[in-house]
Write a structure and sequence with these properties.
single chain, alpha+beta, Outer membrane lipoprotein wza fold like, wza like fold, 2 domains, six-stranded mixed sheet, three-stranded antiparallel sheet, 11 strands, 24% helix, Sugar ABC transporter substrate-binding protein
Length: 211
């Protein structure tokens, strides 16, 4: 009982903090048909490398400096030629060009390809689900991800959840915006119009129902 009260208090404090920091009143998001104002953001999305990612770096004709590298918590990797290369926050293509510039000191006209083998991504790109989800956690964003996709990954709602009073917090035009989302309608009633598009960095807060 104490744990449930503590969890409920945490959710309440988060909602209050979001409100005091400039969130708008509860607006409604359009259904998941790619809202025009967000379509450019969704379609232009490019994966950014983050700590914990496993990178495969291939340097043409130089197998001795090629290989798989784990991104350290400080956002760096260590190669056989260069101890610290900043990689976090870059796209694989941007990183390839950056490594080419670095290796040009040691190799003649290096050609580099970077692929990501294990995706984690930076915190700024993850979707966070807190409160009364069955498995509240941070989720790696995938292009064209919807609320339904997120709820599947967190295992749905707990029996104590008030899904129709859930809130989605999103940074838009440099400000926090707060939107009402109807999770009960979506996953319990099958109301597909309650499904909405997600964006990198979204936060979903699911409160506990008042009995």
């Amino acid at each position: 009982m104490d744990n449930r009260f503590t969890n409920h208090l945490k959710v309440g404090l988060l909602l209050l903090a979001a409100f005091l920091s400039g969130c708008s009143s509860h607006s409604m998001l359009p259904s998941a048909t790619l809202h025009p104002s967000d379509t450019a953001n969704i379609n232009a999305y490019k994966y950014l490398i983050g700590s914990g990612d496993v990178l495969n770096i291939f340097v043409w004709r130089n197998p001795e400096v090629s290989g798989s590298f784990v991104v350290r918590p400080d956002g760096m990797i260590t190669t056989s030629l260069v101890e610290d290369i900043k990689v976090s926050g870059k796209t694989p293509t941007e990183l390839a060009r950056s490594i080419e510039e670095i290796l040009a000191t040691y190799l003649r006209d290096p050609i580099v390809t970077v692929t990501v083998e294990n995706f984690v991504g930076p915190f700024s790109e993850q979707i966070r689900v807190i409160g009364e989800a069955a498995q509240p956690r941070a989720i790696n964003y995938t292009q064209h991800m919807t609320l339904l996709d997120v709820m599947i990954q967190v295992g749905g709602l707990t029996e104590f959840a008030d899904g129709n009073d859930a809130v989605l917090i999103r940074i838009k035009d440099g400000q926090q915006k707060q939107y009402k989302i109807m999770i009960d309608q979506l996953i319990k009633d099958g109301e597909i119009r309650a499904n909405v598009d997600m964006l990198p960095g979204d936060i979903i807060i699911i409160p506990e129902a008042w009995f």
